[in-house]
Design goal:
Strand order of the largest sheet: 1-2
Shape: globular
Order of helices and strands: HHHHEEHHHHHHHHHHH
Largest sheet: 2 strands, antiparallel
Number of helices: 15
Helix content: over 70%
CATH topology: Farnesyl Diphosphate Synthase
Number of domains: 1
Strand content: under 5%
Length: 282
C-alpha cells in the first residue's frame, strides 16, 4: 500500500512542490492502513484483481488522510501530533494543510474515475456514488459537524452511535463495499452481509478509539492521549464507563463475525481484521 500511494500521489519534484510535500507527508510513512486492508480483504472474498484493489484502497487512504489533516486544524480539534509526528499544519502551515486536504480529496475521486475498477461502467458509477455518500454531509463530514457541535453537551447513546456511524463508520463501511464491488459474482444478499459487517467493525473501531484515548499514552497512540476528555467531548467511555465500553466492543466483534458466517473461509481476512480492530493497542 505504501508503494502504491507513493506512486499515485504527485512527487515532490513536481510543482507546486510544497503542496505535494504536504500531501505525501500526511499520507505516507504512517497509519495502520485498516481501511486499505478492509478493501483488500473484501476484494479477496469477491475474487477481485489486485490492481483494482490498490486503486480503490489508495482512494480510501487519500480520503482518510485528508480528513485527519482537516480534523487536526486549529478550527477543528486543534491537535499537534498525528501518527507520531507533528500534524500537517504544524509541519507546514495552516493554508498548506488546508490545500493538502483539499487536493487529497480530489485525488481520491480522480483515482476512482480514471481507472477501470469494474467490468460494467454502471457498477463503477455505483462505487463512486457510495463512496461520495460516505465522505459527505450524510457521512464523514456530517459526523464531524455533529462531533464539533456536541462538545460540552450530554449526548444519549443512540445520538453518539449515530454520530460515529457517520464520522468513523461510513468510510470503513465504504472500504468494505468498494473492495467487494471490485470483484464479481457476489449476490445482493452478500453485499448486505458485508455492509452489516462494515457497520459493526466501524462502530467497534470508534469504541476502541475511545477506550485507548482513556487508557493509552501519546507515545503508543501516536496522537495526543486524553484529548477527548480534556475537550469535554462525549465518548463511549464517558457515557458507558470503561467496563461497559469494553463489553460493547466485544459484542460488536461478535456481531461482525456473525455477519461473515455464510462466507466460511473466504472471509478469513475480514474476520482477522475485525479481531485486530478490537484488540489493537493504538
Amino acid at each position: 500500500m505504501e508503494t502504491a500511494l507513493a506512486e499515485l500521489i504527485p512527487a515532490s519534484r513536481i510543482a507546486p512542490a510544497r503542496l505535494h510535500d504536504a500531501m505525501r507527508y500526511s499520507t505516507l510513512g504512517g497509519g495502520k492502513r485498516v481501511r486499505a486492508m478492509l478493501v483488500f480483504a473484501a476484494g479477496e472474498l469477491a475474487g477481485a484483481e489486485a490492481r483494482r484493489l490498490e486503486i480503490a484502497a489508495a482512494a480510501v487512504e487519500a480520503i482518510h488522510a485528508y480528513s485527519l489533516i482537516h480534523d487536526d486544524l486549529p478550527c477543528m480539534d486543534d491537535d499537534v501530533l498525528r501518527r507520531g509526528k507533528p500534524t500537517c499544519h504544524v509541519e507546514f502551515d495552516e493554508a498548506t494543510a488546508l490545500l493538502a486536504g483539499d487536493a487529497l480529496q480530489s485525488l481520491a475521486f480522480q483515482l476512482l474515475s480514471e481507472h477501470g475498477l469494474a467490468d460494467d461502467p454502471r457498477e463503477q458509477l455505483r462505487m463512486i456514488q457510495l463512496f461520495s455518500a460516505a465522505c459527505g454531509a450524510r457521512g464523514m463530514a456530517g459526523g464531524q459537524a455533529i462531533d464539533l457541535d456536541a462538545v460540552g453537551k450530554a449526548l444519549t447513546l443512540p445520538e453518539l452511535e449515530h454520530m460515529h456511524i457517520l464520522k468513523t463508520g461510513a468510510l470503513i463501511r465504504a472500504s468494505v463495499l468498494l473492495g467487494a464491488h471490485c470483484g464479481t459474482g457476489l449476490a445482493a444478499g452478500d453485499f448486505e452481509h458485508l455492509d452489516r459487517y462494515g457497520k459493526c467493525v466501524g462502530l467497534a473501531f470508534q469504541v476502541v478509539d475511545d477506550i485507548l484515548d482513556e487508557e493509552g499514552d501519546s507515545a503508543t497512540l501516536g496522537k495526543t492521549a486524553g484529548k477527548d476528555r480534556a475537550a469535554s467531548k462525549p465518548t463511549y467511555t464517558s457515557i458507558l464507563g470503561l467496563p461497559a465500553a469494553k463489553r460493547l466492543a466485544s459484542d460488536l466483534l461478535a456481531q461482525a463475525q456473525e455477519a461473515l458466517a455464510g462466507f466460511q473461509d473466504r472471509s478469513r481476512r475480514l474476520a482477522e481484521l475485525a479481531d485486530f480492530i478490537v484488540q489493537r493497542r493504538r
